[in-house]
Design brief:
The chain has about 160 residues and is mainly α. The protein is built from 3 helices and no strands. It is flat.
């Protein structure tokens, strides 16, 4: 028996386990996002290696500098695509699967309590709700913004034009 086993048989002391599970700081990335991130890292690594080789070939004046330089430029375009693929895949995943809507959400409870408090404050203020009264003529009726069509001379049959 080893000293890291949880048997407690060695020296009569409770030993600690060699393998202890620790909770992750952040949740694991979804599989499609992780796949695209690994792909992007590999592409960027190959591109940087190719660009470094092209740089050293250019310093030595080798004829391979031109093809490697063109390859480095193409690799830069592909690496940019790879990084954008990670961002797009992550955004797509969040839009499809990232929204968690639970009926027991704390935000709903808070909104419900705020509404209840506002209702109680309005009822305590004497019923002055500040809303448009339903039915009947509203208190302090104002004239309409637009006059009725008959009041405009341009649309009367005897306007004198004709």
């Amino acid at each position: 028996m080893g000293m890291y086993e949880n048997t407690g048989a060695s020296a009569g002391v409770q030993g600690r386990s060699l393998w202890e599970e620790e909770p992750a700081r952040r949740p694991r990335m979804p599989d499609p996002v992780r796949d695209s991130a690994v792909r992007a890292v590999l592409i960027v690594a190959v591109t940087l290696t190719g660009a470094t080789v092209a740089f050293f070939l250019m310093l030595t004046g080798s004829w391979l500098a031109l093809p490697m330089g063109l390859g480095a430029i193409a690799g830069t375009v592909v690496a940019t695509w790879g990084v954008l693929d990670v961002l797009i895949t992550r955004q797509m995943w969040n839009q499809r699967y990232g929204v968690v809507s639970e009926p027991s959400s704390t935000a709903r409870g808070r909104r419900r309590e705020r509404r209840r408090a506002r209702r109680e404050a309005r009822s305590a203020a004497g019923g002055a709700t500040g809303r448009i009264p339903r039915g009947g003529e509203p208190a302090g009726a104002r004239p309409a913004v637009w006059p009725p069509p008959g009041a405009d001379r341009r649309y009367q049959a005897t306007s004198g034009r004709g």
